[in-house]
Design a protein that fits this description.
By secondary structure, this protein is an alpha+beta fold. It is built from eight helices and 17 strands. The longest helix is centred in the N-terminal third of the chain and has 16 residues. The structure holds fe (ii) ion. The site of fe (ii) ion has 3 residues, from loops.
């Protein structure tokens, strides 16, 4: 039987059976007639209303509840209360990583939404999927109490492992127009990735905490521009799912309006792409209520120890306030049921 080799988050390529309709993302895909064509051409796509609007509004409200629940003085109706002293630790990029937030009920509810899981099932032609325990994004406008959010154009995969390896995603939960901050992608840059890295093989890399992150220098940005690539701010409504190829250069912008931005990062991969060792590491992350970054195979695992002014935040939490309720389907996404005895 013939087979096709595809790259995944694992070190070894995966053999796909010839009959698999999994997207190959290597120029050999058919025309699909839906958002998958945008993904292939541009490196990103928007899946409109992956979550019904009323659910998106409910999850956004729960996210506000969570922030107010620290009882530090933040009030959703008063933007003057947006201050680092009144909020949990959130980076200038809007990222909240600790406090077990990735295992709160709203995060799991978003990950388990049929329209979200279904989009990734379509990509991989596989219902046995793992989901990442990734960060939550709370971006508030006009913050002067934390460092400015400077552009950090990057790819989320190691240039030494070319080819399509991971599809990243986020669910947008508040209105997100052109100036409301959020994802900006270099349109078509994913398809130039291999050529780019051949060209820049001798350029010193911007230091990063993981080889699975590549930052673009000014020279790299110029190369992309000279190739005709244009950066596009991706706009979305509450409930829309944004997906992008990890090879696509991207970063995020801050809001310059009065509109906050809330998003939950959701990335899935087939269970068959993960090793048993990956699944055991992921189980441990689940049991400790920590994050995994966007890699669903728990390539990296995090911590719930946030720091405030260089010391451990006294408001740290090590388990979610509102524990998720799992169905069999959503619990499968943890990978735990796939661990062999
Ligand atoms: Fe990224």
């Amino acid at each position: 039987m013939s087979a096709t080799i595809t790259q995944t988050g694992q070190s070894n390529p995966v053999l796909l059976p010839a009959q698999s309709k999994r997207m190959r993302m290597d120029g050999s895909d058919p025309v699909y007639g839906d958002w998958r064509d945008d993904l292939l051409a541009d490196g990103f796509a928007v899946i409109k209303q992956a979550i019904p609007r009323e659910n998106a509004d409910k999850y956004a409200s729960q996210m506000y509840d969570w922030l107010e629940g620290f009882n530090l003085g933040f009030d959703r109706n008063d933007l003057s209360t947006v201050h680092r002293d009144k909020l949990p630790s959130i980076t200038e990029k809007g990222i909240c990583l600790q406090y077990a937030v990735t295992h709160e009920d709203f995060a799991w509810a978003v990950r388990s939404e049929p329209g979200v899981v279904g989009a990734f099932e379509k990509i991989y032609d596989d219902a046995d999927l793992l989901v990442s325990f990734d960060a939550i994004n709370f971006t508030f406008p006009n913050r002067t109490d934390i460092s400015p959010n400077k552009p950090w154009p990057h790819q989320d995969q190691d240039p030494l492992k070319p080819g399509f390896r991971c599809l990243q995603g986020l669910v947008n939960l508040l209105p997100n127009g052109p100036d409301d901050g959020g994802l900006i992608v270099c349109k078509g840059g994913h398809a130039l990735s291999e050529e780019f890295h051949k060209e820049f093989i001798n350029e010193p890399r911007i230091p990063a905490w993981t080889p699975e992150w590549f930052g673009f220098t000014d020279a790299g940005m110029k190369w992309l521009k000279d190739c005709g690539c244009v950066w596009e701010k991706v706009c979305a409504e509450p409930g829309d799912l944004l997906v992008w190829d990890s090879r696509a250069p991207h970063y995020n912008l801050s809001s310059t309006t009065q509109q906050p931005r809330f998003a939950i990062y959701t990335c899935f991969m087939p269970v068959s792409d993960a090793s048993q060792e990956d699944l055991v590491r992921k189980k441990d992350a689940f049991e400790r209520s920590v994050g995994t970054t966007h890699w669903p195979n728990a390539r990296h695992t995090g911590s719930n120890v946030a720091k405030r002014d260089g010391v451990e935040d006294p408001h740290n939490r090590f388990e979610p306030v509102n524990k998720p309720v799992f169905t069999e389907r959503s619990f499968n996404l943890t990978g735990i049921p796939y661990i062999r005895a």
